[in-house]
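TA notes, week 10

Several of you asked for a full example with nothing omitted. So below is the full record: structure tokens for the whole chain, then the designed sequence directly under it. When grading your own attempts, check the secondary structure regions first.
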């Protein structure tokens, strides 16, 4: 009897110890899984009404973000009033409000419930950021250059995403268009002679958060750096290094002025920097953003990718 009693007692002790050990191991494991939860990553893009909406995978949804005026009026803690749109339901497009350049910013997200993401919430003003919007070169003494960034112009800027929102953790997550106001114009001073310059202006940025749920019901957060609106400011220019190859040249006579306003400018690989996030910026040569070269003597205007009359990218004035 004593042996049986002794075995039963130890059996109970061993079972209790095993249960306690399992419980102690389960709690940290559960906490770790929750804190490291992740899931499908939303992304951003720019859409021009009148063209097809982006194609998305099954289970994903397109949301149109509001105009710069609405983004500018947001207060910390407010949700961005995005509108769900679908090519199969044309009536959803009637609520979309393009910016002054006629473009709409979109977010592509996994649809609720699992996985799924809720509203994007504005959580912090990140201030104005100086951004490259044009670049010109001159290796000729007898030329002057001018740039104007005016109403209806738009720059396409890289969007940052992070799982923590901490400095140095951001990566690229698509693009957004930030346009000038309907009445704002930024004129720049004329630049004379041999100078290589990037023309710059400022955009106001914000930090945003979004709560999401993954396929197994865990909650995780995405943080975004998004341009809210054009801040204006400047005009700024900054000097750049050597002139890239520009083999496509056309002659210019003395006293002639060449104006470029009908093609897409070159994308700047690092057009701006914010809390360790370096991203691209692109501004089109449109009727609302133009660059001019005025020749005081006969010379040549050269393009990097094509003749100046086409889509030259960078342009260089030379003698």
């Amino acid at each position: 009897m004593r042996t049986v009693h002794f075995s039963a007692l130890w059996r109970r002790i061993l079972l209790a110890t095993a249960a306690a050990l399992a419980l102690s191991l389960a709690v940290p494991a559960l906490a770790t899984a929750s804190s490291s939860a992740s899931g499908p990553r939303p992304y951003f893009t720019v859409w021009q009404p009148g063209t097809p909406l982006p194609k998305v995978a099954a289970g994903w949804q397109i949301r149109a973000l509001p105009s710069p005026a609405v983004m500018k009026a947001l207060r910390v803690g407010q949700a961005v009033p995005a509108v769900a749109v679908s090519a199969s339901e044309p009536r959803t497009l009637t609520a979309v409000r393009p910016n002054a350049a006629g473009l709409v910013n979109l977010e592509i997200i996994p649809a609720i419930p699992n996985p799924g993401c809720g509203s994007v919430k504005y959580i912090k003003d990140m201030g104005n950021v100086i951004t490259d919007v044009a670049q010109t070169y001159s290796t000729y003494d007898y030329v002057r250059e001018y740039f104007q960034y005016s109403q209806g112009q738009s720059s396409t800027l890289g969007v940052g995403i992070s799982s923590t929102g901490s400095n140095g953790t951001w990566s690229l997550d698509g693009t957004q268009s930030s346009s000038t106001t309907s009445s704002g114009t930024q004129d720049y001073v004329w630049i004379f002679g041999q100078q290589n310059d990037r023309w710059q202006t400022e955009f106001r940025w914000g930090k945003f958060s979004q709560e999401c749920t993954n396929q197994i019901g865990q909650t995780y957060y995405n943080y975004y750096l998004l341009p809210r609106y054009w801040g204006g400011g400047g005009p700024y220019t900054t000097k750049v290094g050597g002139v890239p190859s520009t083999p496509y040249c056309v002659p210019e006579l003395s006293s002639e002025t060449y104006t470029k306003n009908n093609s897409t400018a070159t994308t700047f690989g690092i057009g701006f920097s914010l809390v360790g996030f370096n991203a691209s910026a692109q501004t089109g040569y449109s009727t609302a953003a133009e660059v001019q070269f005025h020749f005081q003597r006969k010379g040549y205007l050269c393009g990097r990718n094509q003749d100046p009359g086409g889509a030259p990218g960078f342009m260089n004035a030379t003698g």
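The first strand starts at residue 43 and ends at 47. Use that as a sanity check on your answer.
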